[in-house]
């Protein structure tokens, strides 16, 4: 009695192409889902950063008789942060940006950096530059909390484009010139905001809450 061995049947070209097509379709469906999940995690991290900055901002105000953080300040002595620079506009005194003044309350440079900053915003390592992914609303600069009537509606910090063109006498040069000129560590204009989190901007408000908003909904 003879035994015949059955050879395993190989895939045909058509069957192989069908399998490849199914894998490609599944990948096309799943990759955007994974990308959205990653971005959701980065958005949550960004909210946490701004929550830290908002809490530090409030502690700063409590230490300065409820006068809130200044955009920049001249000082004749070195700050404990070590972030200092001589500046002609300060008459040779040390010139400190808001990030430096707030640092003793934050003590973490990572809180100043948005995980979704991308190419339009630079990483801030803690040096003198003002190129940060977050901006400080200049409307609140050095104001007294007693005069605030709507803190829950007043933006303090938000996602911004890290570089923004400014020229004396021409404040209307805007988004077309991103990447040249001075830095946007302060928020003066609506178009300095950056909706890098799935088309939303992460915003910290004066009462301590943080939320993501569509750029068009931010007054």
Residue stretches low in confidence (pLDDT < 50, at least 5 long) are 164-182
Q: Roughly what is the average pLDDT, rounded to an integer?
A: 77
Largest sheet: 5 strands, mixed
Number of strands: 7
Secondary-structure-based class equals alpha+beta
Radius of gyration: 25 Å
Strand content: 5-15%
Report, as a whole number of angstroms, the end-to-end distance: 90 Å
Q: Helix amount, in percent?
A: 25-40%
Question: Counting H and I runs of at least 4 residues, what is the number of helices?
Answer: 2
- Envelope shape: elongated
Q: Spell the H/E element sequence.
A: HEEHEEEEE
Task: Walk me through this protein's architecture.
This protein is α+β, with helices and mostly antiparallel strands and 219 residues long. Helices cover 27% and strands 13% of the residues. The chain is elongated and about 90 Å long. The protein starts with 12 loop residues before the first helix and ends in a 6-residue tail after the last strand.
In short:
Helices cover 27% and strands 13% of the residues.
SSE topology:
Elements: H1 13-63, E1 72-75, E2 94-97, H2 98-106, E3 134-137, E4 155-159, E5 186-187, E6 201-205, E7 210-213
Parallel strand pairs: 3-5
Antiparallel strand pairs: 1-2, 3-4, 4-6, 6-7
Characteristic terms for this protein:
alpha+beta; five-stranded mixed sheet; two-stranded antiparallel sheet; 219 residues; 7 strands
């Amino acid at each position: 009695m003879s035994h015949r061995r059955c050879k395993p049947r190989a895939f045909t070209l058509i069957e192989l192409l069908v399998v490849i097509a199914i894998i490609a379709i599944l990948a096309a469906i799943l990759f955007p889902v994974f990308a959205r999940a990653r971005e959701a995690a980065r958005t949550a991290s960004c909210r946490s950063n701004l929550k830290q900055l908002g809490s530090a901002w409030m502690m700063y105000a409590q230490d300065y008789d409820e006068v809130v953080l200044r955009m920049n300040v001249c000082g004749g002595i070195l700050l404990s942060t070590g972030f200092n620079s001589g500046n002609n506009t300060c008459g040779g005194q040390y010139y400190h940006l808001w990030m430096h003044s707030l640092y003793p309350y934050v003590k973490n440079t990572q809180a100043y950096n948005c995980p979704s900053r991308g190419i339009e915003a630079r990483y801030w390592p803690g040096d003198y530059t003002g190129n940060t992914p977050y901006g400080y609303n200049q409307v609140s600069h050095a104001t007294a909390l007693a005069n605030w009537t709507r803190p829950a509606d007043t933006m303090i910090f938000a996602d911004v484009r890290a570089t923004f063109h400014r020229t004396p006498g021409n404040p209307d040069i805007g988004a077309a010139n991103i990447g040249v000129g001075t830095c946007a560590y302060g928020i003066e204009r609506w178009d300095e905001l950056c909706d890098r989190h799935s088309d939303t901007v992460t915003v910290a408000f004066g009462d301590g809450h943080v939320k993501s908003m569509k750029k068009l909904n931010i007054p």
